[in-house]
Amino acid sequence: MEFLKTQIPDVIIVKPKVFSDERGFFMESFQKMKFKEAGISYDFVQDNHSSSRQGTLRGIHYQITHTQGKLVRAVVGEIFDVAVDLRRSSPTFGKWVGVFLSEENKEQLWIPPGFGHGFYALTPRADVLYKATDYFDPEGERCIRWDDPDINIDWPLLDESTPIISKKDLAGSSFRDAELFS
Questions:
Q1: Is 76 exposed, middle or buried (0-12, 13-18, 19+ CB in 10 A)?
Q2: DSSP assignment, residue 95?
Q3: Residue ranges of the domains in the chain?
Q4: Which of 34, 58, 59, 177 sits at 20 to 30 Å (Cα–Cα) from 157?
Q5: 102: closest CA among 131, 70, 132, 73?
Q6: Half-sphere exposure of 11 (CA within 13 A, CB side)
């Protein structure tokens, strides 16, 4: 596995070593010792699976309590995956990084606690699996609007059309008004 730092050094692209032949492929998607050696020494307590149709945008989600780190990958289709630094004490506070994750590239994105997370489905179907470092906490769940002008994420919207967004996500806070981390 390779662990590649992004423009926000705490957010890391994980490139697996893939062994392919006429039967298909094999890869390690997680190996605790290799992750620990790369500085990712969290225990994962929950796995989640999300399936989205093309044009769906989910996020920007985070939990203010039971803060979650996430290891994200697309196992069907392709997504544009985004991490936003919500840690006021960070030199990259308010900055975002976006990465294309797909069943073809088999890459994963490590998003540490203290970040917001969202993604946009680029293919007719996109199935996303992600490991979380803490349990889902509905009381601590927060959302920042996907189109917040202060964060200004450059989403690769198909045909520049309005994405499909849940009512809950449409009601998300602005970055300025959001409850964030110290």
A1: middle
A2: -
A3: 8-13+42-170
A4: 177
A5: 73
A6: 25
Q: Is 135 a catalytic residue?
A: no
Tens digits of residue pLDDT in 3-38: 999 999 999 999 999 999 999 999 999 999 999 999
For residues 105-117, give the mean pLDDT.
98
Q: What is the mean pLDDT of residues 116-129?
A: 98
Instruction: Exactly one of 42, 49, 61, 62 is catalytic; name it.
Output: 61
Please give the share of the chain, as a percent, with pLDDT higher than 70.
100
Is the pLDDT confidence value at 104 over 90?
A: yes
Name the amino acid, one letter, at 37.
E
Q: 8-13+42-170, what's its fold?
A: Jelly Rolls (2.60.120)
Structure tokens at 114: 């203290």
- Would you state the structure tokens that stand for residue 48, as one six-digit string? 């989640």
62 given a catalytic annotation: no
Q: Which residue of the set 42, 62, 120, 130 is catalytic?
A: 130
